[in-house]
Every structure is written in C-alpha cells, then in structure tokens.
C-alpha cells in the first residue's frame, strides 16, 4: 500500500494512494458540502457542491471524483468557492418545485440542510416552475419528480447494492428525469424488488414511502453503507 | 431617538407569519417601546399605506393585481423592506398553481367544478382583483433588503431578526435557527 501526502487547507494529511480528495478531507477533519455523494456507492460528481481549488490547476475540481496525489495543495473554502456553492443550491431550488412547507422530507432533507450550510436566504435565479409528474403506481413507494435534483443516488444504489438497476436517467437538460424500467410506471416494473434502498438513498422528499405525510420521512442512510461494509469486509454488525 | 415606523403587509399568504409575529407575546411591549405600528392587518386599522415607513415586514407572494399595486407602493414608501416568510421569499404554496400554466385551471376548479348550482367565475373589475398569470416571490418584482425564511418563521427567529433593526443594526441571518425553509 503506497501512501500520498498532501495539504488540505494547510493541514498535512497522509492517505492511501487512490483515495479521493473528499475522503482525504474527511481524514483531515475538513468538511466539504455534498449532495450526490452517498457512502457505499460510487461517485459521479453530479452536484458540483464539492468543488475545490488545487494549486497549479486553473479550474475547480469536484473532490468526490478527484484522486489525492503527492504534494497536492488543496483549498476547500475561498470566497469564490463559497459563492459557487451557494449558486449551485440556489439553482437547484429554482430548477425544480421545492416547497419545504408541504414536503415529506421537511426537517429531514439534505437539500434543505445544505441551503442552510451555504447561507442561502433566497434564490437569485428566477423560478422555473416546471410541469413534472408524480408516480404512485408502486404499491409501497412513490416518486415526486417535482422534488428531484437528479443526484442519481437512487440509480446507483439500485444498480450497485441491490443489483436490480430499476432506475436510470432519460432525457437531457431541462427534460432530464429519473425513470423506472424502460420509462414505465414504477408499479409495472418487474425488476423492482421493493427493497426500499432508493427511499433510503434519496436526499430530498422525491422518493418516499406511501402513507408518510409532511415532515414524516424516516430514512436509514446507514443501512446502505452497512451493507457494503458487510459484503466487502465481512462485518455483519452495526 | 425617534421611534421606528414599522409596518406589516399581508399579500398572498395564509397569515401564519402574522400569527407568528403575534406569538412574540410580551416582547411586543418591547417592540412598542421602540416602534410605532403605522400600518398592519394585525396592528392598525389604516387602509392606505403611509409615507416614510422605516421598516416593513411583507408576508405573502405576489398573486393578484392588488398585491402587485401594494408591493410597488410599499417599496416606494419604505426604507427597509423585509421578505417575511417562505411565501414572500420563495412564493411557496401560493405558487403551486404556477405549475398548471395559467389561472384558468385554478379558477375553474374552485369556482365552477366545486361551486354550487349558481357557480360562476368571479369578475368585478375594480372591486375583485384579478389573479396574475404567475405567482412570484417579492424580490422578483422589487428590491428586498432582508429575507426571513420560514413557514412560518418562529417567534424567536422574528425577534432575532428585528431586534437589531429596531436599534438601527443589521441582524445576522446565519444557521439553522435563522435560515431553514419550511
């Protein structure tokens, strides 16, 4: 096992080669905000919240998919990064239809939490108010596309942990959306095992258990990470 | 020091933010020491928005012609305009009709489909304000000086935001206690 040493916000840190900057920052006790990252599944760099500045590299890079290399000098908080992070969150709010007051995930929402973290008191972008669907054809679960931020966590847990690959993304730009099966109603998709991992993975109130109402969502995020650790390291206790 | 001239207005919202303001309870006596309430649906009986207001809390989104006229007047006559609560800040629940594209589906549903046998669409120009095609947050129409999110903002949050203002200072809007939506 080779080790690389680097500096994150002037803190010296040594990590195993191949470690991402996000994990290296965790090691150094530095928090970087994220939305699409989920412990236990692969990273895709979709939300751009974890952008960091690296000395000698002219563009900002997402910490979740950038490997730590020897001698790197990384900065995670600059006025520019803070401004971009806040803009990203403001754009997410303006892009979909996020009405916290009537959402199942109110008080338990990572989008809401990250808005607080970046200091968003309003969005400077004009709200789009897109027309989006709600699919409640599945007997146990529902998906409200109004609240979806296209983080693709559901796609990754279903593919990588459950192995069912019910979820995927269709369309581009404003037409992009997560789909079930071959863009069928969720309830018609035979491949769905009704395991509920997508419900546990969703950062917002987009995917929910039927019967939950405002602020009632109750997820078990740790279960996903536990399953992966259990399989890989044969540790079957939590 | 002269007393601060404080106003509150109620646009398209449920009045929950005003209820939360009244929830300040005995601290309202403190407000009265520092401020005169010059216009408010819960604190005065004036029908016209006065001139030279120092601070105004605006509850609600801009959803109809009356809201629109009032918000322009408020901006013109107020030094510090505050978007007060999620409807003012994000347009919130009143804006959920925006997803339907126009006012027609909402009016039809409310006044025709759910009406009794004499159901009709409301139409009294000059008396009943017409709905705007799109419900909008306050800052999309006029400049806003301070945002107090929350549905509704709790009384402690309101107090933490306006207490400094009454003394001529700017509040610090940071952290879960001050910023959480919903």
Detailed description of the structure:
- The complex is a heterodimer of chains A (238) and B (182).
- Chain A has helices at 21-27, 79-95, 110-117, 153-162, 197-201, 221-233, and strands spanning 3-8, 11-16, 51-54, 61-62, 73-75, 134-135, 141-144, 167-170, 177-180, 207-209.
- Chain A has 238 residues and is α+β, with helices and mostly antiparallel strands.
- Chain A has two domains: 3-77, Ubiquitin-like (UB roll); 84-233, 2-Layer Sandwich (Alpha-Beta Plaits).
- In chain A, the strands form three sheets. A five-stranded mixed beta sheet of chain A has the order 2-1-5-3-4, covered by helices on one side. Chain A has a three-stranded antiparallel beta sheet with strand order 6-7-10, with no helix packed on it. Chain A has a two-stranded antiparallel ribbon with strand order 8-9.
- The radius of gyration of chain A is 19 Å and the shape is globular.
- Chain B has one domain (4-97, 131-179): NADH:ubiquinone oxidoreductase-like, 20kDa subunit (Rossmann fold).
- Chain B contains seven helices and seven strands, in the order βααβββαβααββαα.
- Chain B has helices at residues 16-22, 27-34, 65-77, 86-90, 104-113, 155-166, 176-179; strands spanning 4-10, 35-39, 53-59, 62-64, 78-84, 131-136, 146-148.
- The interface between A and B is medium-sized, with 26 and 30 residues.
Number of strands of chain B: 7
Shape of chain B: globular
Strand order of the largest sheet of chain B: 2-1-3-5-7
Low-confidence sequence ranges of chain A: none
Strand percentage of chain A: 15-25%
Q: Number of helical segments of chain A?
A: 6
Give the H and E element order of chain A: EEHEEEHHEEHEEHEH
What does the oligomeric state look like here?
heterodimer
| CATH class group of chain B | Alpha Beta
Sheet with the most strands, sense and barrel status of chain B = 5 strands, parallel
Average of per-residue pLDDT values of chain B? 96
């Amino acid at each position: 096992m080779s080790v690389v040493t680097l500096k994150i916000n002037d803190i010296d840190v040594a990590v195993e080669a191949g470690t991402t900057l996000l994990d290296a920052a965790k090691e150094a006790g530095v928090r970087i905000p994220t939305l699409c990252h989920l412990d236990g599944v692969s990273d895709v760099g979709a939300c751009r919240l974890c952008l960091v500045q690296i000395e000698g590299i002219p563009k900002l890079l997402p910490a979740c998919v950038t490997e730590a290399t020897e001698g790197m000098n990384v900065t995670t908080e600059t006025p520019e990064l803070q401004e971009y992070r806040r803009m990203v969150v403001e754009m997410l709010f303006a892009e979909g239809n996020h009405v916290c007051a009537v959402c199942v995930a109110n008080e338990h929402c990572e989008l809401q939490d990250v808005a607080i973290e970046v200091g968003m008191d309003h969005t400077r972008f004009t709200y789009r108010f897109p027309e989006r669907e709600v699919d409640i054809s599945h007997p146990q679960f529902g998906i409200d596309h109004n609240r979806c931020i296209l983080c693709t966590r559901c796609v990754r847990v279903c593919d990588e942990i459950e192995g069912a690959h019910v979820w995927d993304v269709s369309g581009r730009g404003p037409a992009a959306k997560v789909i079930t099966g071959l863009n069928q109603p969720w309830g018609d998709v035979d491949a769905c095992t009704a395991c509920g991992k997508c419900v546990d993975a969703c950062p917002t109130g987009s995917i929910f258990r039927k019967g939950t109402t405002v602020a009632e969502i109750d997820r078990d995020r740790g279960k996903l990470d536990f399953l992966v650790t259990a399989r890989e390291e044969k540790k079957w206790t939590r | 020091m002269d007393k601060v001239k404080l106003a509150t207005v109620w646009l398209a919202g449920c009045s929950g933010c005003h209820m939360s303001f009244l929830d300040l309870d005995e601290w309202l006596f403190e407000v009265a020491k520092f401020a005169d309430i010059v216009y408010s649906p819960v604190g005065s009986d004036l029908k016209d928005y006065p001139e030279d207001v120092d601070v105004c809390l605006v509850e609600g989104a801009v959803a109809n012609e009356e809201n629109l006229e009032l918000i322009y007047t408020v901006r013109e006559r107020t030094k510090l305009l505050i978007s007060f609560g999620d409807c003012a800040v994000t347009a919130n629940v009143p804006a959920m009709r925006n997803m339907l594209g126009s006012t027609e589906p909402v009016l039809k549903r409310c006044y025709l489909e759910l009406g009794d046998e004499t159901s009709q669409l409301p139409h009294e120009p000059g008396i009943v304000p017409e709905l705007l095609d799109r419900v909008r947050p306050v800052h999309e129409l006029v400049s806003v000086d301070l945002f107090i999110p929350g549905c509704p903002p709790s009384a402690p949050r309101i107090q933490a935001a306006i207490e400094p203002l009454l003394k001529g200072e700017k509040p610090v809007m940071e952290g879960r206690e001050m910023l959480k939506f919903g």
